[in-house]
Design a protein that fits this description.
The complex is a heterodimer. Chain A is of the alpha/beta class. Chain A has helices at 5-13, 119-125, 150-165, 180-190, 213-224, 317-324, 345-353, and strands at residues 21-25, 30-36, 46-51, 56-60, 65-70, 92-97, 104-107, 112-115, 134-139, 170-174, 191-192, 197-200, 231-236, 243-248, 252-254, 263-265, 272-275, 278-281, 296-297, 305-309, 329-334, 358-362. In chain A, helix 3 packs across helix 4 and helix 6 packs parallel to helix 7. Chain B has 4 domains: 10-235, no CATH class; 267-415, GAD-like domain (Gyrase A, domain 2); 447-557, no CATH class; 565-622. The longest helix of chain B is centred in the middle third of the chain and has 24 residues, at 247-270.
Chain lengths: 372, 623
């Protein structure tokens, strides 16, 4: 229950629980319906009631009385278990979920949206998955993509490596979209993979009929069965529900806050286009083929690295701060070909003296940088 | 025909959808206007029913449910945005639309909720790009007092209008996104009305209430649905009742339909009627048929309805038979129609062929058959629907959503929707409706249109026609505001607002440029005798062209300022003197031609009455 203070006391006082059918009496009107939980950030002066018409309303508790009409059942979460058939003729695909909800189920009685985490859930929501492969599904962790940390990359990389050693013919990772391209880059450096590793997600949540999740997921499975043994991102290629693009993990970036085709290959072409369940590989692409690499895992990652963007007026304190705080390396996003104001040079000298590697890149999205 | 409604247990309720005239859509900044321009981009989408129950894996069912869920959306660079496209989360709730709803709620004596929650209501017919409509409850439990008694207004919702359907072709249904997101008020009465005239009265009263607030006018901006049942029948929702005068007819014809269906049920039960499962293939049997419809089809199939003979052809509404009801179910599966034994021979199908079919199907005198001719899968699917509907005939009236037709009949659209599938729209914060918000609105509620019209006629001595137009065109408030400050005759003010402005707009002028102050300036000039009544329209047009220029200057620049009485006198005297001979010759008969000459010179610069008087005096001086 996320009710707080006043509302919480009120509910406890009247012996009510979430899911109960209750009646709230105001001076000149009363409301009967199911008591629902309240969004965490909402205040404590109101109850949420789902009326029999299906509408939710908020009722201010001041000067009201409440009564219990009927105890509610505990809401069941998820789809329940289902036996998933195994087909020897099909490839084995691992699906690793990190918190991006590729599928969900709505409990219309309470309006709650539950993410689907198990293989059985996924297959129930997307039965057509069974046409393409056998699945091993694991919910690795459940975090928002903006809360992603290097330690989670390590965990994911280990899990993927483990799956591959255990015979996976391809791995699909469900991921929130905000930092998907950071993860795809990190995994590209941490893993040498003999099979495809495909990261996917949705720009429109999976509870809605218009979600892009289903198409992205199915196409990712198609990509995971393909010959492309690289870490890739697979997402919508346009605003249409028509095709997806497979982007190289180190060349992709989120370019739009909300559109379905937000992921774009930058300074590169997508490796492939997937349409009508067929992978059409870009003929100019020299990709790593299935089985070419031996599996290799390198999780030796330094978390204490500073990332600093140069801008007009930046002071050397930005650099000094990181050195003072013991950062082990700095990545500088310079302007143009990779420039910073002259004032910063002394601080870089200091970093050099203290054996802190400083790496320069450009904040321009296109083109090379000086010295390349 | 008049029924004994009370005895029949007739119960009716109304549901009204009214577009609000807010500046912007409910959840994005786009305008609330429909667009006739060519669209800029077509986006192609699929909708997918979301898993909600603990069902088993059923791929066939999923496949079936995905059929027909391919859509194209017409969008515009200027008139629509990424929100309508479902490519951007909704913006915050349009408070102007909410305030209009609060006004409506107050006028209907409703209880406004403390907190408005926007919900997602699943709609996967493609009319909403997201697969759901955003909707919320603004108020509940109001009432209206009618001559037939008190009618409870159950609820007032605020929701998004749906996209406009353009066409279905090549497996895609195409929609235009201009209408999607226009705020709609949804008003639902309880089903407590018992007489067709009462429904009409309530619909009229609701219309009056809505029209006193800031809502859209014109075709398609209000949609009225009627819920109706009789005790032995079933609840039917009739969509799109446009004409209030047709309301009573629609009710009567629905009562007739339900009574006939109950009668048919009783007869079927008495005959022990039965719909047989088997779908028969008549291709070989009718190999040599001359019927064009049958010949051109890939396959001809039939089902047997034991005990249905004579009843399929029974009329349930004027010109509509039980067979029409069955056919409308089959049509949903892609056939143009059905043939039933009660209407054959016809359509090129001969008596001989009917006999052959009867023999082939091995049916008796009380039995009937229904034929469908089309492609294999469509024919089978249509006959499955025929069987389903024929079977439902054994139960009497079916719960349905029906469409109102122009003649007062109704036609099957789809089954009644099951309980609303709704859950919270998490992209929009909960919205508190505090007393601070409601009180100012409740304290300045608009007058109902007919009350306002009557008061304006009495208070300003206007003609009924002018008063009606002022109210209808929503300019009565401007009218009253002008007259509150300017001591001028009401009629020219009313006729500028009610008639001239529309013409001026039609001529291509942007009348929205005219502010209340502009109007006051114009009529102050009239009140002071600086301009003539005839010049008001012209001055308004010129003011639109130069809204920042001083009004006297505009009048002067356009030669609209009236002359002083002395100047007028001087000009007229000159004209009369120039025509002295004619005056002498025609005496007072010269009045007409001289008036013409003077008005030509003085039009807009002198009052016609004054000119007339001076001309008369000048003539009399000469004779």
């Amino acid at each position: 229950m996320t009710y707080k203070e006043n509302a919480k006391n009120y509910i406890e006082n009247y012996g009510l629980g979430i899911g109960d059918k209750i009646k709230v009496n105001k001076e000149d009107i009363s409301y009967t319906g199911i008591l629902l939980d309240r969004p965490e950030d909402a205040d404590d002066g109101y109850l949420v009631i789902k009326l029999s018409s299906g509408y939710n309303i908020g009722v201010a508790i001041e000067d009201t009385t409440a009564e219990l009409i009927e105890k509610g059942e505990k809401p069941k979460i998820g789809f329940g278990q289902t036996e998933i058939p195994y087909d020897d003729a099909k490839q084995n695909i691992s699906i690793v979920s990190t918190g991006g909800t590729v599928s969900s189920v709505i409990d219309y009685r309470t309006g709650a949206v539950h993410p689907a985490f198990t293989a059985s859930d996924l297959v129930k929501a997307n039965p057509e998955l069974l046409d393409y492969a056998n699945y091993n599904v694991k919910a690795l962790y459940n975090i928002l993509s903006e809360d992603m940390k290097p330690e989670y990359w390590v965990k994911a990389a280990e899990e993927i490596a483990n799956d591959i050693s255990n015979g996976s013919d391809g791995v699909v990772i469900a991921h929130g979209t905000d930092t998907m391209h950071y993860t795809s880059a990190a995994l590209s450096f941490m893993l040498k993979t003999p099979v495809p590793v495909i990261i996917t997600g949705a720009q429109r949540s999976s509870d809605r009929p218009s979600s892009d999740a289903n198409i992205n997921l199915i196409d990712s499975v198609i990509a995971a069965k393909s010959d492309i043994a690289e870490v890739c991102v697979c997402m919508h290629g346009s605003l249409n529900d028509e095709y997806t693009y497979l982007h190289k993990g180190t060349k992709v970036r989120k370019m739009h806050t909300s559109r379905r085709d937000t992921f774009r290959s930058i300074n590169a072409q997508p490796i492939a286009k997937i349409q009508n369940k067929t992978v059409e590989i870009n003929p100019e692409y020299n990709y790593v083929k299935r089985g070419e690499n031996e599996l290799e895992l390198n999780t030796d990652i330094e978390e204490k690295v500073g990332f600093i963007k140069s801008f007009p007026g930046i002071s050397k304190e930005f650099i000094e701060y990181h050195i003072d705080k013991g950062y082990k390396g700095l990545v500088i996003e310079g302007t143009g070909l990779g420039h910073v104001p002259n004032d910063l040079i002394d601080s870089f000298r200091r970093a050099q003296d203290e054996n802190i590697p400083v790496v320069m890149t450009s904040q321009c999205l296109y083109g090379n940088y000086a010295g390349h | 025909m008049e029924y004994d409604y009370e005895k029949l247990g007739l119960k009716m309720g109304l549901e009204i959808h009214q577009q609000l005239n807010s500046q912007h859509k409910l959840f994005c900044p786009c305008k609330t206007e429909l667009v006739d321009d060519d669209f800029d981009e077509l986006v192609q989408r699929k909708l997918r029913p979301t898993q909600s129950e603990l069902g088993e894996i059923d791929r066939a069912a999923l496949q079936e449910s995905l059929r027909g869920l391919n859509f194209k959306y017409e969008n515009f660079a200027k008139h629509t945005c990424l929100v309508e496209n479902d490519d951007e989360p909704p913006h915050s709730l349009n408070e102007e639309a909410l305030d209009i709803c609060i006004t409506i709620a107050c006028l209907m004596n409703m209880h406004i909720v403390d907190e408005f929650h926007t919900m997602r209501k699943q709609v996967i017919d493609g009319s909403n790009t997201g697969g759901f409509q955003r909707t919320g409850m603004v108020a509940t439990d109001g009432y209206l007092l009618t001559p037939y008694g008190k009618v409870v207004i159950e609820s007032l919702g605020l929701e998004e209008d749906a996209a406009r359907r353009v066409e279905t072709k090549d497996g895609f249904t195409e929609f235009r996104l201009d209408r999607l997101g226009i705020p709609l008020a949804e008003i639902t009465t309880d089903p407590s009305m018992h007489h067709p005239e009462q429904v009409r009265e309530v619909a009229y009263m609701l219309g009056q209430i809505l029209r006193s607030t800031n809502v859209k006018r014109g075709l398609g901006t209000i949609r009225q649905d009627l819920n109706i049942s009789i005790a032995e029948g079933a609840r039917v929702e009739i969509k799109g009742v446009q004409d209030l005068d047709l309301m009573a007819e629609i009710v009567n014809r629905e009562v007739q339909r339900q009574l006939e269906l109950i009668d048919i049920r009783n007869e079927l039960q008495a005959r022990n009627a039965e719909v047989l499962e088997e779908i028969h293939d008549l291709d070989e049997l009718l190999e040599d048929t001359e019927s064009k419809i049958l010949k051109s089809a890939e396959t001809i199939k039939a089902v047997v309805l034991k005990g249905y003979d004579g009843l399929i052809g029974r009329e349930v509404q004027p010109g509509r038979r039980f067979g029409t009801e069955i056919a409308s179910y089959a049509k949903k599966r892609g056939v143009a129609g059905i043939f039933h034994s009660d209407e054959l021979p016809a359509y090129g199908i001969t008596q001989d062929e009917v006999d052959k079919i009867t023999e082939f199907l091995n049916i008796g005198e009380e039995d009937a058959f229904i034929i469908v001719a089309h492609d294999e899968d469509i024919a089978v699917s249509a006959l499955e629907e025929v069987k389903r509907r024929a079977n439902l005939g054994l139960e009497g009236v079916v719960e349905e959503t029906r469409k109102a037709l122009d003649d007062g009949n109704t036609e099957y659209m789809r089954p009644l929707p099951t309980a609303n599938r709704m859950y919270l729209e998490t992209d929009i914060p909960l919205f508190k409706i505090t007393p601070d918000r409601v009180e100012p609105i409740a304290n300045s509620l608009p007058e109902l249109p007919d009350v306002k019209q009557a008061r304006i006629i009495a208070e300003y001595m206007l003609s009924e026609d002018l008063a009606t137009q002022l109210v209808k065109r929503q300019v009565a408030d401007t009218f009253e505001a002008i007259l509150a400050d300017v001591d001028v005759d009401a009629t020219p003010v009313a006729s500028l607002l009610a008639y001239d402005l529309r013409e001026i707009k039609r001529e291509g002028h942007e009348i929205a440029v005219l502010s209340l102050d502009h109007f006051k300036d114009i009529f102050n000039l009239l009140a002071d005798g600086k301009i003539a009544k005839d010049s008001v329209r012209k001055l308004a047009v010129e003011t639109i062209k130069a809204p920042d220029t001083d009004i006297s200057q505009i009048a002067e620049d356009n030669n609209l300022v009236m002359m002083s009485d002395e100047d007028v006198h001087e000009i007229i005297a000159g004209i009369v003197a120039d025509n002295e001979e004619m005056v002498k010759e025609r005496q007072m008969g010269a009045m007409g031609p001289l008036m013409g000459m003077c008005m030509k010179e003085l039009k807009g610069k002198a009052d016609g009455g004054l000119v007339n008087q001076i001309v008369r005096e000048e003539i009399q001086k000469l004779i």
